């Protein structure tokens, strides 16, 4: 079964088209949260108009109004990259949006704690933490940083989970072999600058992720 791919932090129609045509399974848009790739809901909604694959609005600690706006805009998924509690994740899941809960991890204990969310979220996304010394209000993701994948080894992982953080066309095959991730997620690793994707990098990333025959 090939690994699924999420291309995240899209801001341009041509990149959306490239990613979809190259076989991306999820397209991600950073919505109403601190980021160099930030879009409004309306801007992101315009980009997903003709998209046939899963569409993900990535945000953090959203208000009920923002969740409603994301649902009304037609996204299939909301990715929660903030400090949402288990109860809040469950509440957002009741809106009918599929929920991806992103959890920054750098230890086995944090991986174990993150899996608590699997009762409420449809998918857990393991990501790297922001750089050491970053201000408290720094963007919660999209830093191009990897975490030590070996902290996932032997962990009781949820059935649906994704690997993010510092993935690139050069390391994605190694990452899948190492972790057997069912889904891989990339933002900065296929860009020339934040939000500006490189068509060749998108194509190579997806081809390398999908050519591997992973278990399960
Ligand atoms: O990409 C951003 O700017 C961003 C901002 C706020 C929350 C999440 C964000 N991106 C997510 O970060 C991961 C990993 O990114 P990278 O490949 O290491 O650059 C990815 O899931 C994006 O969805």
Give structural attributes.
216 residues, EC 5.3.1.24, 20% strand, PRAI_dom, isomerase activity, TIM Barrel, two-stranded antiparallel sheet, N-(5'-phosphoribosyl)anthranilate isomerase, binds the ligand O=C(O)c1ccccc1N[C@@H]1O[C@H](COP(=O)(O)O)[C@@H](O)[C@H]1O, eight-stranded parallel β-barrel, alpha/beta, 10 strands
Outline the fold blueprint.
Elements: E1 4-7, H1 13-22, E2 26-30, H2 41-48, E3 54-59, H3 64-72, E4 77-80, H4 86-93, E5 98-104, H5 108-114, E6 123-127, E7 161-163, H6 172-179, E8 183-186, E9 191-193, E10 196-197, H7 199-210
Parallel strand pairs: 1-2, 1-8, 2-3, 3-4, 4-5, 5-6, 6-7, 7-8
Antiparallel strand pairs: 9-10
Helix pairs in contact: 1-7
The protein binds ligand LGQLAAA5.
The ligand O=C(O)c1ccccc1N[C@@H]1O[C@H](COP(=O)(O)O)[C@@H](O)[C@H]1O binds next to β2, β6 and β8.
Task: Explain this structure.
The chain has one domain: TIM Barrel (Alpha-Beta Barrel), CATH 3.20.20.70. It is about 30% helix and about 20% strand. It is an alpha/beta fold and about 220 residues long. Helix 1 packs parallel to helix 7. It is built from 7 helices and 10 strands. The longest helix is centred in the C-terminal third of the chain and has 12 residues, at about 200-210. Bound molecules: the ligand O=C(O)c1ccccc1N[C@@H]1O[C@H](COP(=O)(O)O)[C@@H](O)[C@H]1O. Belongs to the TrpF family. This is N-(5'-phosphoribosyl)anthranilate isomerase. Pathway: Amino-acid biosynthesis; L-tryptophan biosynthesis; L-tryptophan from chorismate: step 3/5.
Q: Report the order of strands and helices.
A: EHEHEHEHEHEEHEEEH
Shape call: globular
List low-confidence stretches. none
Radius of gyration, whole Å = 16 Å
Query: Could you say how many structural domains there are in total?
Result: 1
Q: What bound compounds does this protein have?
A: the ligand O=C(O)c1ccccc1N[C@@H]1O[C@H](COP(=O)(O)O)[C@@H](O)[C@H]1O
> How many DSSP H or I helices?
7
CATH architecture: Alpha-Beta Barrel
Strand ordering within the main sheet: 1-2-3-4-5-6-7-8
Structure classification = alpha/beta
Largest sheet descriptor: 8 strands, parallel, barrel
Under CATH at level 1, the class stands as Alpha Beta
Work out the number of β strands.
10
Strand content: 15-25%
């Amino acid at each position: 079964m090939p690994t699924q791919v999420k291309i995240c932090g899209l801001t341009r129609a041509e990149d959306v088209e490239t990613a979809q045509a190259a076989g991306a399974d999820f397209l991600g848009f950073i919505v109403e949260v601190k980021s160099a790739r930030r879009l409004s809901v309306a801007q992101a909604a315009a980009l997903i108009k003709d998209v046939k694959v899963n569409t993900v609005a990535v945000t953090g600690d959203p208000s009920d109004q923002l969740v409603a706006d994301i649902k009304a805009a037609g996204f299939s998924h909301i990715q929660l990259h903030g400090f949402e509690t288990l109860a809040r994740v469950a509440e957002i899941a009741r809106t009918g949006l599929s929920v991806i809960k992103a959890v920054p991890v750098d230890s086995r204990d944090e991986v174990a704690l993150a899996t608590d969310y699997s009762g409420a979220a449809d998918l857990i996304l393991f990501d790297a933490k922001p750089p050491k010394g970053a201000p408290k209000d720094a963007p919660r993701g999209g830093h191009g940083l990897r975490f030590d994948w070996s902290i996932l080894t032997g962990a009781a992982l949820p059935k649906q989970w994704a690997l993010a953080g510092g993935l690139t066309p050069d390391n994605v095959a190694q990452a899948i072999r190492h972790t057997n991730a069912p889904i891989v997620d990339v933002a900065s690793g296929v860009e020339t600058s934040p939000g500006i994707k490189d068509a060749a990098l998108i194509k190579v990333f997806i081809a390398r992720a999908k050519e591997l025959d992973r278990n399960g």
